[in-house]
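G., before I forget:
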Amino acid sequence: MGSTRVRIAIDAMGGDHAPGEIVAGALRAREELGVEVLLVGDPQQIKAALPPKTNFGQVEIVPAQEAIAMDEEPLSAVRRKPQASINVAMDLVKQQQADAVFSAGHSGAAMAAALLRLGRLPGIDRPAIGTVFPTIVAGKPVLVLDVGANVDCRPKFLEQFAVMGSAYSQYVLGTSEPKVGLLNIGEEDSKGNDAAVRAHQMLRENTQITFIGNAEGRDVLSGRFDVIVCDGFVGNVLLKFAEAVGEVILQILREELPQGLHGQIGSALLKPNLKRIKQRMDHAEHGGALLLGVAGVCFIGHGSSQAPSIFNAIRMAKEAVDNEVLQRIQSQYILERESG
Amino acid sequence: MGSTRVRIAIDAMGGDHAPGEIVAGALRAREELGVEVLLVGDPQQIKAALPPKTNFGQVEIVPAQEAIAMDEEPLSAVRRKPQASINVAMDLVKQQQADAVFSAGHSGAAMAAALLRLGRLPGIDRPAIGTVFPTIVAGKPVLVLDVGANVDCRPKFLEQFAVMGSAYSQYVLGTSEPKVGLLNIGEEDSKGNDAAVRAHQMLRENTQITFIGNAEGRDVLSGRFDVIVCDGFVGNVLLKFAEAVGEVILQILREELPQGLHGQIGSALLKPNLKRIKQRMDHAEHGGALLLGVAGVCFIGHGSSQAPSIFNAIRMAKEAVDNEVLQRIQSQYILERESG
């Protein structure tokens, strides 16, 4: 290989629309972003998904004999199938043949494979899944973590999420001095359960981040925060609720807007504007989720991801590699050890 | 008093728009629902909020010398101010001079006052705050509890929430055989933290309710569930997020829809339809929250409540009294003790 271009290992077998949409998104990313894509999976299926006139010499396919299904128990499946596409993709990073991994498959399996194959970053007890929500301020997303990797979190884990999230927000999302919040049930320092109160204290005292206090549910979309940390239980509920809300609202709009003659004409006139609204609310436009705290750049997409989401996630992965996010996170912990 | 009409004690001093909007909503409820309203608070302020031609003989004002502000620590404020309007309102229920209480003031203070003045229902360890979310199925709301009273919940508490919520859904919201779900991060029985797994098991074995399994964040608005139980931390985050989402979407619609000439004409034509959409998404249309598990019918409104929300909450309170929800809940626990 030896190219200086960013190389992304793509789990071509993961997701509801694999390999077709995965391959389509990857090829677009290769074209428009100048990244190298390594398509990991069953070569026959991948070749069948390539456009008719593809020059196979230009597309790198890395064979993997197995895949992990959405209903498999992640840890045991990852162990039982060493040749699963997600494992092979992780190994490419481990062996420095790729700079990052993307998968739209089983997110639990991606986390398990990352932990087993790549391990954790030094100083990190528990990796987290982070995802970016749009906010009411256009162009100012908020990174929420953890959204599902850790159902119970000690305050120390939340503090680590905050440090990692800040580095990501600064070096990938381009936020200068990211404002960090702790998801909680009130603004006051003393609010929440014991873990929340202790986490608040630790975040307050951490000099590596800019902690501005508790974030309530209503603050997530306000644009006041750049990073919000929470345990993976509440984060996961929130993420899935938010995804569903978007769909519910669009369905209500589709049902109610064209009612009556005025409604039909009005809706027709508004088509371009409605499309723009859909884009502002659409999760896919804002890229996938990422695993923070494992020793590699790993992005995961929703199982329902189609080519545009895949493309966006690969774009984010490239940014993370270009801006050396892992090194930034590690340097925080090395500094800490040296000064402590 | 001695009337057979339902009597609602209204905390006229609680809420951002007190007493004006509170009194307006209460008077409308008296007019349209045939309930008796007892306006609790500062007589001078209440009288000033009444319409000019009010026949004072028809409006019952119960004097209360104090009120609890939104920023006060609830338990100590409720103890320090025995003559606070929320305390006086609770006492009216305690002394059987009122059948229910409504307050749009400090919800923590309402809970504290209910606990101190009325106590818990027999068999209930922890009262919960329940609130009704609209779902994608028009006319089929879902009751979510707890949304803020208990930040840590033992599985047994969640089971009690389920029993109380089912009774409320059946006898106030008119659901036959309410379907109960446990808010969790996956559909499988084994998902979630230890508390969630144990709660799942207890709900599964409880013969008083119809438990249909875990509800993920995406299921809240799906209409598949009539009652969803969760701890007050995640419930509170979800509620506040949901309230904010509605506002965010409406703001995006207001910003994006009228863009351009077509947009302006289209938006004008769609005005009535947009109003209907706002109503479907509007929390106020679906009434306030309720305290379940205290020995009295207690409804609480959002601090920002205006007359229509107050009216709706009073309507729900009347339903709860008419349908003897407290007695229904109690009978579940009496039956249990007798059979156990």
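DSSP finds twelve helices and eleven strands in chain B. The radius of gyration of chain B is 21 Å.

More on Monday.
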